[in-house]
Amino acid sequence: MANGKIIKALSGFYYVLDGEKVVRCRGRGVFRKQKISPLVGDYVEYQLESNQEGYILSIEKRKNELIRPPIANVDQAILVFSVARPNFHLGLLDRFLVLIESKAITPIICLTKMDLLSPEDEQKIHSYCEDYREIGYQVITTSVKNGSGLDQIRAVLQEKTSVFAGQSGVGKSSLLNALRPDLQLETKDISDSLGRGKHTTRHVELIEIDNGLVADTPGFSSLELGDLDLDELSSCFPEIHQLSQYCKFRGCRHLNEPKCAVREAVEMKKIPAYRYDHYQQFLVEIKERKPRY
Asked: CP-type G domain location, by residue (predicted)?
């Protein structure tokens, strides 16, 4: 028996990285009976059979997992958003941030295609960057065309398991190709009629880049808040969570309650109005979510 980490799942096989070698494994039937699916990122125990193939015997406890993309034990999520083609989407960025925060994964914001901005739009984007940095997020601005920001991305990948996530067409695959040219990941042009890209990544796989493991994940343009409940939401907005302790009432939802420190901060422009607007939108969405049985 040996131990390793699943780096790819494809067509019923799990590819386990064990030191320098990769072993193709199948999952034991007991996993199906227990309705357990091994995930990319899982640390597993496996038994080697003939022809360099094996069976996964057990899965170690996960520190976190994502459903979409299906991956476990992630250290950080590189949230890739383009500033043009498709346009920068603040609401979607905050949605991604909430999901990642709820999974106790460190988010890093990466803005691509900076070379496409007009001077006026560039000023606006830099203003948003400062807002997020003030909250405490790391923000990296990049351009594959001129190579700017790539060294910063390389630095954060060191010895981490990272997920690259974001809308289709924002340049995730182009960014990964720039970081490791031999990958030659497929990229597609943006659809002019829809203003978004086509899906080019069809499965989750961990690839080695700069002494780290990186998942290029299928792109998507909408994101449900899943099983997040009302009481958890404010903790997924760091600036709101930090100020909650100063509200008059414990359990303050920061809507209409008197002496709410969060609403006072919004009025004093210490919290960006768009962040508070998105917080309110997500609260309504969670309240109106149909129960799952």
From this structure: 63-223
